[in-house]
Amino acid sequence: MGIIEMALIVYFVGFIAAFIIFTLIxxxxxxxxxxxxxxxxxxxxxxxxxxxxxxxxxxLLGKKYNQFVGRxx
Length: 73
What we know:
Keywords: Membrane, Transmembrane, Transmembrane helix. This protein is mainly alpha-helical. The protein contains two helices and no strands. Helix 1 (3-29) packs across helix 2. The radius of gyration is 18 Å and the shape is elongated.
């Protein structure tokens, strides 16, 4: 199984889990307007979990990388 298939499986399972959790929280709050937020967060959280460490890594290590490749900042 390749890395792309594994990423798709993790994203799909994460989407289902987040949707179930957020739906249960929304039912407990009795707020039907929260459904859009639930759906959006169900799609967004796996993307944030995957990309935020990469973004922070680039931000924090950008200066070291520039020194490594010999660029002046």
